[in-house]
Write a structure and sequence with these properties.
Layout lengths: L13 H10 L1 H15 L9 H20 L9 H28 L1 H6 L6 H5 L1 H22 L10 H25 L3 H15 L11 H7 L3 H14 L7 H25 L3 H4 L1
Helix pairs in contact: 2-7, 3-4, 4-7, 4-8, 4-9, 4-11, 8-11, 8-12, 11-12
């Protein structure tokens, strides 16, 4: 690392803050790599844990919503309908949980040395991205099993992955900063994840939501992300509701921008509270 004289000043400009983040990029890489190694340390079946939970959830949702409730599947096998939505949801939920607890986990590091605190929740998202890539391979196996070819729109999947990352990081910045002062949030976050799984269009297509409620429903940023993932995989346009998708994109961007702003405004007190 090159020589670097750091002067900590209040109300730093955005440019100075970004320059500082770039300077500490090696710390970001180290924390991300350490989290990946720790994730599978001393586990018997290793990376298989990344696919067991979404796979079993997919089986349950397919039975309940597909077989028992007989909800429409947009002409594709119901397991593919569910799993193509489970991927972005699981990524968002894991990333949000990891980042919301990250500052408490790194309390000793934060209380001893200075570095941009934003690196901690941001680096914790990487391990969830690795889980996402592993689960993506399982989706490919599932599509081979059902003989279902991906649509040409699959090339747009990185865009929706980026959108899910913005939503997860924005929520994670908010919750991690609040969790430092109010430890109640470590109980609230698991509830939010469980509640969000059932209100998001994971086990069913969002086309079953009545038209008069769809715009309001799209305030959930993951509704647009999940619809987009399904569109990429299945190529069916029935689930894509453009006004709702535009609203989901706007909510994700606002969530990320406001999360960064709130985090920067409160980070100076982290060491005192921890």
């Amino acid at each position: 690392m090159e020589n670097f004289d750091l002067i900590i000043e209040p109300n730093r400009s955005t440019g100075a803050f970004l320059k500082e983040l770039i300077h500490y990029r090696e710390l970001f890489y180290f924390l991300a790599w350490r989290d990946i190694l720790v994730r599978y340390k001393q586990t018997v079946i290793g990376i298989a844990w990344s696919v067991i939970r979404p796979f079993l959830t997919m089986v349950v949702f397919s039975l309940v919503f597909g077989r028992l409730a007989k909800l429409p599947s947009e002409g594709v096998p119901y397991p593919i309908l569910v799993f193509s939505a489970m991927l972005p949801w699981q990524y968002f939920a894991n990333a949000m949980q990891e980042s919301s607890n990250s500052l408490i986990v790194e309390s000793r590091l934060i209380s001893k040395v200075y570095f941009p605190r934003l690196i901690v929740p941001a680096s914790s998202v990487i391990v969830s991205a690795v889980d996402f890539l592993i689960s993506l391979a399982l989706l490919a196996v599932l599509m081979l099993f059902y003989g279902f070819a991906p649509s040409p729109f699959i090339v747009f999947m990185p865009f929706f992955f980026l959108l899910a990352t913005l939503a997860a990081l924005g929520t994670g910045f908010w919750l991690s900063a609040l969790n430092v002062k109010y430890r109640d949030f470590r109980y609230i976050v698991p509830f939010l994840v469980q509640f969000g799984l059932y209100v998001s269009p994971v086990g069913f297509s969002s086309s079953v939501v009545p038209d008069r409620w769809r715009l309001l429903y799209s305030l959930n940023p993951m509704a647009g992300v999940i619809d987009g993932f399904r569109w990429c995989v299945q190529g069916t346009a029935e689930s894509v509701y453009l006004p709702g998708f535009a609203l989901s994109v706007l909510v994700s961007v606002v969530l990320f921008g406001s999360g960064v702003k709130f985090f920067r405004r409160t980070e100076r007190f982290f060491a005192d509270y921890i």
